[in-house]
Design goal:
The protein is mainly alpha-helical and 148 residues long. It has six helices and four strands, in the order ββαβαβαααα. Strands 1-2 form a two-stranded antiparallel ribbon. It is elongated and about 60 Å long. InterPro entries: Zinc_finger_SWIM, ZSWIM1-3_RNaseH-like.
């Protein structure tokens, strides 16, 4: 999709590639340049997330400014933090820490109530099976280690 300076967009190229490797991205950009001779007029490129895209576009369109999509960037940031918080919740050995991580996750997902509802019904409902603060490691339950 190419958008002009007043926001009018039009289809420019669709490329199906097998993985976003640097070589594949270079091939897609080369095809774009061959089919769109006005590519020299491009002033800015917005990419979703892949930093290899940014590198290839910097080489291919050196005059164009490159930016990561604000929508995708914030979504990636939130997903990364949510995954990290859930991991911390599962690994903590302290119930107060668990509650702090849960509160942070609740704050992070305030604009996505369906995520927190899912978490409550499918994860927090079985919290006793997940948390580690009352569990004794298996090897501590035996006087002698189990040998296999």
């Amino acid at each position: 999709m190419v958008t002009d300076m007043i926001g009018t967009g039009s289809f420019a190229q669709h490329a199906l590639i097998d993985g976003e490797t640097k070589l594949n991205m270079k091939s897609a950009v080369k095809a774009f340049k061959q089919n769109n001779p006005t590519y020299l007029d491009i002033k800015m490129v917005v990419v979703d997330k892949d930093f290899s895209e940014i590198e290839v576009l910097a080489e291919a369109l050196p005059e164009a400014r490159r930016e990561i999509s604000k929508v995708y960037g914030s979504t990636t940031f939130e997903k990364t933090h949510a995954k990290n918080l859930v991991t911390l919740m599962a690994r903590t050995t302290d119930e107060q820490e668990f509650d702090r991580y849960l509160q942070a996750l609740q704050t992070l997902s305030k604009d996505k109530p369906q995520f927190y509802e899912y978490l409550e019904s499918n994860w927090l409902s079985c919290k006793d099976y997940i948390h580690a603060w009352e569990h004794t490691p298996l090897e501590q339950q035996y006087e002698q280690p189990i040998r296999g």
